[in-house]
Amino acid sequence: MSLDLHVDGKRWRDHLVKTVEATPGIVPVAKGNGYGLGLSKLARRAQWLGADTLAVGTYEELPAVADRYLGDLLVLTPWRPFSPLPLDLSRVIHTVSRPQDLAALREIDPHARVVLERMTSMRRHGMSAAELWAIQARHEGVSIHLPMAGGNYAEGRRLMDDVIGAGATTVWVSHLTPDELVRLRSEFPDVTFRVRVGTKLWLGAPETLTVSATVLDVHELQRGDTFGYRGRHALRNGHLIVASGGTGHGIGLEAPTGDSSPRARAAAAARGALDAAGLVRSPYFLDGRQLYFAEPPHMQASQLLLPQGHRVPEIGEALQLRVRHTATSFDSVTIS
Ligand SMILES: *Cc1c(COP(=O)(O)O)cnc(C)c1O
CB of 233 within 8 A of CB of 305? Predict the structure, then answer.
């Protein structure tokens, strides 16, 4: 049984158009699980939005977007000599984060299009200022990937000197606020800013996204009854709801705290009896009320506790969920 994502198409598309209009130089990012929507849907949407460049995370993701999106394709993971080379090289822009990789790549393909990555405080990939300045070869700009924490203006401003020093006229950035971008653009009017956006584009209007599962079974529980793989006992009367969605979908991978020290139990007791029993909140909601896992989720289903006194759902009824879209596999994605 399934875990489904439903998108309110009109409002979602309105949000996309507004975001693109408000973000000059935008480069949509489609990577991983396609932000829960799937790479192919994002590729088609980027084409519809008229983006001239689409970024993917890895070379392996190129085939999923290449025949649905016709513009340039920027690969965000830096090229390495062991990277698989895409078949159609002309549309691909490689990210290069080490001087020796640039030489090796150009040996394979003298026409390879590249963006040079400058190391940032993230310390993920990138060249030092000196390495960047030493590069004489042709390139399509410098990339700086800033942390998510925000407040990136000062670092962005400092790294711009390296970009200018490298003779670049284009800088590819992420995680700068609109205000920070306006400021940097006014300080560097001759530089073209390309702005990589994933989350704030595809998932930036959460009210347009609904995740639902289905009630597969409902069982009455008397205090003391056993349930689940682990033979837990019900602490009080209520119902056990079996719903679609489990670890196979990326649901609730964190297990119950298991912390049964007196202190943890006291803290939990203050929050409620189910917390006190070492149970964890699930991402499932019934009538706006967050349900607890009866035990850790199974591969394709989850067992949830419904305390007495609440409306008991029908089999076949939908439950709503709040999930991390980038870490969830949906069985279906419907865009109205
Ligand atoms: C993933 C990624 C982005 C997009 O990040 P979001 O937070 O989803 O907008 C931008 N730049 C790089 C280099 C990335 O890897």
Answer: no
